[in-house]
C-alpha cells in the first residue's frame, strides 16, 4: 500500500465519520426541538390553592366588625389579602402549567431516598423547643431551635450559626413585644430582657 492509497483510505474514513455525525445530529434535532409535555395533574394543586383562597376570603368576610383603640381597622384585612394572594398564585400557577411549565426535579438529590434521620432530628429540635420554652424563655429556646435546625440541615460553622441564632431569637422576641405588642415567654431571663 502506497502513501497515496493510505491517504485516500484515511480521507474516506474521515468522510464516513463526518456523514455519520451529520446523520446523528439531524436525528437528534427533532428530539431536542420537541415541545415540553404538559403535566396537567398540577392543575389539581392550582384548584386546591384557588379553593383555599376563596375559603379564606369568605371566612374573613364573616369576621365581626370589632376594633380596638390600638387597631382601628380590625382583623379583616390581613386574611382577605392572604386569600386574594392565594387565588392569584393559583391563577399564575395554572397559567404556567397550561403553557407547559413544570416543576424542577430537585437537583442532584432528586433520585435519593427520603432522609428519615434528618426529619427525625428536626422533629426532636422542635419538640425540645416546645418543652423548654416556658422554662428557658423564647430567647434561649428559640436560639436553640434556630441553631439546632441549622446544624441538622448541614451548617458546620457552629459558632457563627449560634451567633446568628441568638440574634434571630432576640430580634423575634423584641419584634413581637414592640411591633405587635405580644409578649413571648422570657423564662429564666425574666427581668433582664
UniProtKB/TrEMBL annotation:
TM segment ranges: 40-58, 78-98, 119-138, 158-184
Keyword Transmembrane helix: yes
Domain DUF1468, first and last residues per copy: 44-185
Keyword Coiled coil tagged: no
InterPro entries: DUF1468
Keyword terms, alphabetized: Membrane, Transmembrane, Transmembrane helix
Domain of life: Bacteria
Name by which UniProt lists this protein: Putative tricarboxylic transport membrane protein
Organism expressing this protein natively: Glycomyces artemisiae
